[in-house]
Structures are given as C-alpha cells and as structure tokens.
Amino acid sequence: MAQLLVQRLPAGAKVAIIAGPPGHQASYERLRVARGWLKSNKLKVIAVEAAHWNRERAESVAMKLLEKYLDLDAIMTMNDDMALGALRAADLVKPGKVLITGFDGEECVLAAIRSGKILATVDWYPDRQGIYAIKKCWQELPVI
Questions:
Q1: Structurally, how many domains does the chain consist of?
Q2: What keywords would UniProt list here (predicted)?
Q3: Single pTM value for the model
Q4: What are phi and psi of 140, to 5 degrees?
Q5: Less Cβ around it within 10 Å: N or C end of the chain?
C-alpha cells in the first residue's frame, strides 16, 4: 500500500497511519514496513494512531486526524475494517479528497475500491492461508 501511495502522491505529502493494537505482531510489522517505505520515498508520516482493528475506533481516530491536519493527503490503515471507519470520517470531513488504503482484501472494501471510494487493499487471501501452509509442509517433508 505504501508503494501505491508513493506513486499517487507528490513528495512531502502528508500521511496518517491507523494501526492495530500496540504490541500486536501483525500491526507492528505492517506499520514498520509502511513507515519505512513512506519515509524513504519522501512522504511525511504525520501521525500514527491505534484503533485496535476496530471500525468505530478508526472512524473516531480518523475524524480527529482530519480535523487536526486539514491538509492530510492519505490515511493508511492496517486492516480493512479500519479503512471503512476512516472512509466514514473522510466522507464527513473531506469527501473524495483523502486517499485511504486497507489491508485484508475483504469484499466490502473491494467494492469500495471498484466504486473509487478507497484506493486499495492488500488481498492476502486469508481464507487460503491454511491450504498454503499444508501444501508447504508437504513439500518440505522428506521422501521416505
């Protein structure tokens, strides 16, 4: 997602990140990679706030960010529920003027992408992860 924001925004653009719970491994890794990519490509990460994977909390956090940073260009969220919350807030404060990204590939966010309301999400096929893991294990087993 960070790479797509870099492609869409000019250097110096302001990005806020809405993360999962502090200390949560998935949130930490997504945040670490996103921050590094954004900063190395000259986008300004002006705030990182936790919304604990929760849509309503993300809406509240996004509303405060949009009111505090009137020139905010994008909100990057670490899951799709939070992206939908951020979208609700942006629709109230700056409709169509803030790029929003998610992470999970949920159908409701894919629909929002098709309609142009959300920029993108990462579809990492969570429903297939178990299948991928089992196939990988079988590939790694020694032949007897």
A1: 1
A2: Signal
A3: 0.85
A4: -85, -15
A5: C
Give the CATH number, domain containing residue 116: 3.40.50.2300
- The token pair at 65 is 């960010």
Local confidence band at 113 (pLDDT 50, 70, 90 cut-offs): very high
Interval 59-73 mean pLDDT: 97
Range of the domain at 20: 2-140
Taking Cα atoms as reference points, which of 54, 120, 49, 60 lies closest to residue 92? Answer: 60
d(CA 118, CA 111): 9
Q: What string of DSSP letters covers 10-56?
A: -TT-EEEEEESSTT-HHHHHHHHHHHHHHHHTT-EEEEEEE-TT-HH
